[in-house]
Amino acid sequence: MKHVVYFLLFLSSIVYGQVGINTSSPQGALDITSDNLGLVLPRVTSLEDVTNNQAGLAEDGTIVYDVSRAKTCFRVANVWICIANDGTVAVTTTSLVDPNAEKSTQPKKKEDQPETRNEMAVLEKEQH
């Protein structure tokens, strides 16, 4: 009987993977609902000290507030990117050319070429 209870508890945690805070019907992996409260990110004194896995490294997608820089920072491709105090983000570009690709003098057919998209997010500082 104990095994059945443990199995049902384990199964229910797998089946319902969404978490809701102040909501009984979360609309995403984490759904926080509030009329008058904001989200406070974890505060760190140094980005170098942020670890959230067993290897002692910060995972891509980690978001923290660095108090020494007074900036919100997020990790992408093993690099910390911080949002400037004026609400801007430095945008870097990555080459779309693969140096290991086969060299050819024949142009590819249009249907063989990957679709390219240029996107840019604009962050604006809220005026009080």
What can you tell me about this protein's structure?
This protein is an alpha/beta fold and 128 residues long. The protein has a domain at 2-30 and 38-95. The chain is 11% helix and 17% strand. The protein is built from one helix and six strands. It has one helix spanning 2-15, and strands spanning 19-21, 30-32, 43-44, 63-66, 71-76, 79-82. The strands form two sheets. A four-stranded mixed beta sheet has the order 3-4-5-6, with no helix packed on it. A two-stranded parallel sheet has the order 1-2. The model has no long low-confidence stretch (mean pLDDT 73).
Helix content: 10-25%
SS content category: alpha/beta
Task: Quote the average pLDDT.
Answer: 73
- What is the N-to-C order of secondary-structure elements (H for helix, E for strand)? HEEEEEE
Number of helices: 1
- Using only C-alpha atoms, the radius of gyration works out to 22 Å
Which regions have little confidence, pLDDT < 50, spanning 5+ residues?
none
Estimated share of beta-strand residues: 15-25%
Largest sheet: spatial strand order? 3-4-5-6
